[in-house]
Amino acid sequence: MAYYPGATPRLSCDFYSSGVLTDPTTITLKVLGPDGTTSTYTYALSQVTKDSTGKYHKDVPLATEGTWRWRWEGTGTVPATSEGEIEVTRSPFV
User: Which domains does the chain have, with CATH numbers?
Assistant: First the structure.
């Protein structure tokens, strides 16, 4: 899927313990922008949405072109991480 500046994709993460969806004690999402700036979002501050037990998401606006990287972190009952990246390219209509 192509992403262009201004897109707001949904970043989701499922946390499992012994194959069962489980809520971590703490949940953090870190998003690293192409300019090197990191934004941090937490469930504790209601910046991350819980969909159901062990399932979370955050809609993240991607303002500029470049590679955006993300990392979910769970601690406590489910110590886990998940990482990925999204490439944002110039729109062919600009």
Answer: 10-88 (2.60.40.10)
